[in-house]
Design goal:
Shape: globular
Structural class: alpha+beta
Oligomer: single chain
Strand order of the largest sheet: 2-3-1-4
Strand content: 25-35%
Order of helices and strands: HEHEEHE
Helix content: 40-55%
Largest sheet: 4 strands, antiparallel
Distance between the termini: 40 Å
Number of strands: 4
């Protein structure tokens, strides 16, 4: 009985540890063509935040880059990111993912 209890506790502990390490938020760095000012940044940020999967948005206008952090457990495809940014009036040239 003791061996089973210890084994069960160890299994639960390892499952929790490994699940936590997998649950880190994913982020996407998006190269965007056409951004020239802070108004552009606000428009893109507002459009991206309409998605419930978006946790945060950071725009670097001078580099033409938008960084999006996706909420833990959520998914957001490249196609949806491209569509949201296109709906804001801009063109995506590249998307790079990190987790």
């Amino acid at each position: 009985m003791k061996t089973i209890t210890i084994s069960l506790v160890l299994t639960l502990f390892l499952t929790t540890v490994f699940s936590a390490s997998i649950a880190f938020a994913e982020s996407a760095t998006i190269s965007v063509k056409g951004m020239v000012c802070e108004s552009c940044a606000e428009t893109i940020t507002g459009k991206l935040k309409t998605s419930a999967a978006v946790d945060s948005v950071s725009v670097k206008v001078n580099k033409g880059i938008v960084e999006v952090t996706i909420k833990d457990g959520a998914t957001l495809s490249d196609d949806i990111l491209k569509t949201l940014i296109a709906d804001a009036g801009y063109t995506v040239t590249e998307i790079t993912r990190k987790s």
